[in-house]
Each structure stands twice: as structure tokens, then as C-alpha cells.
Amino acid sequence: MQLINPNSKIDFLGKRKIALGISAFMLFISLIALVPSIRGLNFGIDFTGGSLVEVQFKQAPNIADIREAISPAGYGHAIIQTFGSPEEIIIRVQNKGNSDSSSVSTAILSALKNKFGDQQIDMRRVEFVGPQVGEELTKAGISAVGIAMLAILVYVTFRFELRFALGADAALLHDVMIVLGVFALLGKEFSLPVVAAILAVIGYSLNDTIVVFDRIRENLAANSKLKNPLDEVDVCNASVNQTLSRTLMTSFTTLLVVFALFFLGGEVIHGFAFALLVGIGVGTYSSIFIASPIMLSLAGRFRSSDEELAEMDARP
């Protein structure tokens, strides 16, 4: 199925300065948002350590009343959020000394029942992560992303060339930074499922980029046999156009599934699905507008008009 004519002549690389400018702006905003003193990531208890208590009320409570109820127990600074429905409440508290999940949940449940009554509240779930485990998970998450990027660099270098590998890694780093920036800007919780989503985005975006690079390699090989070979920029433009229908169809069908997860999957996988939504959109954009221009820039294929004229004048 061809949504777009593979012989179309859309000048994607001609728009590279606009695309790179947009990407530079998004990366700048993301980096600013990731600074802890400005916004920073809203790490979940997977990373910070602490307790999560999920309770269900018979009727939707007021968040201010819940905070007032648990403040005397020492949990006035807890993060309190609705979870799926107004009646379901998530309470996240940081670790306090040697307290465990049992003592924390008991204290919170007792305080809530004193405020709202025994028959109004049901305990649904309790989770506890110690500070050492949280620190280990943080290191493991960073290591997982770093190892994936390094492995991709080696793989693409082996399969193509170093300039292709650097272009692919630059596009992937671009995608990861923007996903992190969006989470920081919106204050969404950053948890282990989100790390899994980022790794999935890296794989998805790489797949898109490899398809484009594979077509570029095929066209460069065919182009070298012509009497009047085309410039590499024209070859890359033709390759992106030839794979554009496949790229858009793959992204569209994937997004249909992710939208279903986002709207119907419930709060438990909401962050995971949101990261995929952002990542797939940005990854599709980067495989078209970022990877190839960076790859060609590293090979010195983009030159000023003065350099091109000088080369023409030097020809016999």
C-alpha cells in the first residue's frame, strides 16, 4: 500500500536548517526543564525510595481533606493524586528513618479512618522501595540507556559506516532528550515503566532510521555506476521519499495501538503509553529530518555556494 508516490520529490534535506533549528529549540527547552533547580524529573518511588498507598473511598474525597487528615501522622508533604477515578487515591510518601510499608500504610489508613470513618475507605495496594534499591534502580536505568546507545553505535558502524552510526545515535539521543524534557515540563511521574518505554522508543526509532539508511546505501551503490552520478544529497532525498510511505504507515498503525493503551489501559501504564506516544512521534520526525542531514554533514556533503562555485571554476 502506497500512501505517497515513491517517486515524489519532496526536498526534505533542503528543509534541514529549519528542522535542525526546531530540534535545537526543543532540545534547549528540554535541557532547561531537566535542571533540578528549575523543574527536573518527577521521579517515582522506584527511584527515590518510599511508600505508595492506594486507597478507595466510597465517595470522591477532597484532596485538601486527605492532606489535613494525614498531616498529624507526619505525612503532610506526601504526594496525593487520583488514580483512574475520583474515588481512588494514591498517596506517595518518602522514606522516614527505618519505617517500612506496614507501619506507613497502617498510620495512613488509621489517620484516614479517623477523618472519614471506617466504612468509607478500603485499602487497595501498598508498595515499598528502600533508598538503596532506589539508588540501584537509578544507576541501572541510566546504564541500560547508555549500553543501548553504545551497542547501536557499534552495530550501525559494522553494518554501514561510522558516519551512518553517528547520525543514527545523534537522532536517538535527540529523541530520548525530548521525551525526558516533555516529562519534566509536564511534571509526569518518571518510573521504571517509563524507562522501559524509552528503550522501546530507541529500538523503534532505530528501526525507522535503518530502513532509510539501507535505502540510501542501495541507491548510493546504484548511483556510482551511472555515467553522471547524482550528488549524495539528491540520493538521500530520493531515498527518504521512497521509504516515506512505509515510515508513515508503520508509525500510524503503531500509534493506534499506543492510543488504545493510553486511553483504555488505566493509570498503571499511563506513563508508559505517554512516553511511547511522544517517542514514536519524535522518532518518526528524526528518522526523516535529523539522521540523514547529520550523517551527510559529518561527511562534509553540505557546502556553501562559494565552495561549490570555486570547485566548478577549478574544473578543466
What does this 3D model show about the protein?
There is one protein chain. The protein is an alpha+beta fold. It has helices at 16-34, 45-48, 63-70, 101-116, 131-159, 162-186, 192-223, 232-264, 270-289, 291-298, 305-314, and strands at residues 42-43, 50-57, 79-83, 85-94, 121-129, 189-190. Helix 6 runs antiparallel to helix 7 (192-223). The protein is elongated, with a radius of gyration of 25 Å. Residues 303-316 have low confidence and may be disordered.
How would you briefly describe this protein structure?
With 316 residues, the chain is of the alpha+beta class. The chain has helices at residues 16-34, 45-48, 63-70, 101-116, 131-159, 162-186, 192-223, 232-264, 270-289, 291-298, 305-314; strands at 42-43, 50-57, 79-83, 85-94, 121-129, 189-190. The chain folds into two domains: 13-40 and 134-314, Multidrug efflux transporter AcrB transmembrane fold, CATH 1.20.1640.10; 50-129, Alpha-Beta Plaits, CATH 3.30.70.
State the low-pLDDT regions, or none: 303-316
Number of domains: 2
Structural class: alpha+beta
Total beta-strand segments: 6
- Side-by-side strand order of the widest sheet: 3-4-2-5
Rg is: 25 Å
State the distance separating the first and last CA atoms. 48 Å
Offer a few descriptive terms:
316 residues, alpha+beta, Multidrug efflux transporter AcrB transmembrane fold, Alpha-Beta Plaits, 2 domains, 4-stranded antiparallel β-sheet, two-stranded parallel ribbon, 11 helices, 6 strands, 11% strand, disordered C terminus
